[in-house]
Amino acid sequence: MSVVYDCSDPDSRVDGLKAAAASVRSGRLVVLPTDTVYGIGADAFDSAAVRALLQAKHRGPDMPVGVLVGSWSTVDGLVLGVPQQARALIEAFWPGDLSIVLPHAPSLNWDLGTTRGTVMLRMPLHPVALELLREVGPMAVSSANVSGKPAAANAQEAKDQLGESVSVYLDGGPSGEVVPSTIVDLTGSAPVMLREGAVSADAVSEVLGVELGPQE
């Protein structure tokens, strides 16, 4: 049975984070607040859990899941290399609303969907999310909604859509304006804006010192 924990209450927050960490480690799904919308998450290295996440969203592997991290340094172990452009974006916008696509380290044993050797990484600016990520490590996280339906701006909206497929719901209050993260692809010869969200294209271009190419 799913359990909702009110993270505005200190005791409930402690219990919720403990329950969420145990759930992630045992291959179950959790819903967590982020600085954009609520997310549904699983252990990034547990392929069965990631498949369960996709199933809960009624989504196929053709729409791969991104990975949230709890620190800058975690990225070094997940990707083939961290180019200077990625480090500049990380320093400017993390923790925050920018997702970066990079080639993942070939030694990693994970299955996030049809990623073609890449991974989308972000460090969220939310204390509950960061505390959980620092406890359990990188998590595969997608918006906490059924595909085709509105993204959840609070824990109840997530529970209404995902129900008992999730074992723990961490209620961190409303997420505010429902704006997705901006996604920048750094896997090619030039940076490409895949989605303009909370961080503007102009802000990204200013940090990189180049104009962003459109998605082909």
TrEMBL record:
Tell me the protein's name: L-threonylcarbamoyladenylate synthase
Query: Which GO terms fall under biological process for this protein?
Result: regulation of translational fidelity; tRNA processing
Kindly state which reaction or reactions the protein catalyses: L-threonine + hydrogencarbonate + ATP = L-threonylcarbamoyladenylate + diphosphate + H2O
Give the lineage: Bacteria, Bacillati, Actinomycetota, Actinomycetes, Pseudonocardiales
Supply the source organism for this entry. Answer: Prauserella isguenensis
Compartments where found: Cytoplasm
Q: Which UniProt keywords apply?
A: ATP-binding, Cytoplasm, Nucleotide-binding, Nucleotidyltransferase, Transferase, tRNA processing
Record keyword Nucleotidyltransferase present? yes
Domain (Carrier): give its ranges. Answer: 8-86
Q: Which GO terms describe its cellular component?
A: cytoplasm
